Amino acid sequence: MIRLALHQIDKKYGNHAIFSFENWQLDHGIYWLKGGNGTGKTTLFKMIAGQTPFEGSLILNDISLKNQPVNYRSMISYAEAEPQYPAFITGNELLKYYLDVRQAKSEDSRSLVEALGMANFMDQKVGSYSSGMLKKLSLICAFVGDVQLFVLDEPLITIDTAAAQVLYQVINARHAQGSSFLLSSHQELEMNHLPIKQVFQIVERQIQPC
Ligand SMILES: Nc1ncnc2c1ncn2[C@@H]1O[C@H](COP(=O)(O)OP(=O)(O)OP(=O)(O)O)[C@@H](O)[C@H]1O
C-alpha cells in the first residue's frame, strides 16, 4: 500500500515551465493520467520515477527521493512509452539484468513471457524486435520483483488486443496484491477492464482530477 506525496513542485526545461503546484497526493489504487501531446505526462512520470531533476519534494511511504534515492527508486517500476535498448542484447539478457537487480526468480516472469507470446523471441537480439515486441519486453521487465508503485507510460501503445488483455490481467492481479499503478494513455482506457480509482489531467502546470 502506498502513500505518494509531491510538495512545492516546480519543473522547467530551460525557460519552459511544465509544472508548478503545491501538493499532489495518492494512496493505494490505479490512477490514469490523460492528456494531449506535450502536456507533461511523460515528464511527470519521469519525475516520480526519479529520472529527471525538479524543484520540490517527492515522498513515497515516508522515503524521500532526494534524501534516500536508492531506497525510493527500489519501490518503483517505470516503463517508458517508447523503450529503447542496445540492439545487440537479447531479451533474456535484459530480463536477467532486471531479475538480478530486483533479486527475483526467472520462474516469476515465465508466465508473463508465455502469455505475451514472447517465449520464442527472448533469445533473439532486441535489434530484430518489432516495436510491439520491444514494448512487451519492457512490460515483462517492469513487472519483475516486488514493487509498490508501477509507473507505466502509454502501456497500451503498439501492443495488440490480446496483449492488452494480458496486461489488464497482470495489473489487476498486482493491484489485488497491494501494488498501485500510474498509467497514461492517449486513448480511452477500457475502464471496465481496470478499477480506475481516479482520472487526472494536466491543466496549466497543475494536476487536476477529471
Ligand atoms: N528533455 C526535454 N528537454 C526540453 N523540453 C522537453 C524535454 N522533454 C519534454 N520537453 C517538453 O516538455 C513538454 C512536455 O513533454 P512531455 O513529453 O512530458 O509531454 P507528454 O504529455 O508526455 O506528451 P506526449 O503525449 O506527446 O508523449 C513538451 O513541450 C516537450 O517539448
CATH architecture: 3-Layer(aba) Sandwich
Classified in CATH, the superfamily is P-loop containing nucleotide triphosphate hydrolases
The portion of residues forming beta strands comes to 25-35%
What's the arrangement of strands in the largest beta sheet? Answer: 6-7-8-3-9-10
Terminal-residue CA separation: 24 Å
Percentage of residues in helical conformation: 25-40%
* Gross geometry: globular
Top CATH class: Alpha Beta
CATH topology: Rossmann fold
Structural class: alpha/beta
- The tally of beta strands, per DSSP, is 10
The ligands bound in this entry are: adenosine-5'-triphosphate
Alpha carbon gyration radius = 17 Å
What features would you describe in this structure?
With 210 residues, this protein is α/β, with parallel strands linked by helices. It is built from six helices and ten strands; from the N terminus they run βββαββαβαααβαβββ. It has helices at 41-48, 69-73, 91-101, 106-115, 131-142, 161-176, and strands spanning 3-13, 16-27, 30-34, 55-60, 63-64, 76-79, 149-152, 180-185, 196-203, 206-209. Helix 3 packs parallel to helix 5. The longest helix is centred in the last third of the chain and has 16 residues, at 161-176. 30% of the residues are buried. Bound molecules: adenosine-5'-triphosphate. Adenosine-5'-triphosphate is lined by residues 13, 18, 35, 37-43. Keywords: ATP-binding, Nucleotide-binding, Transport.
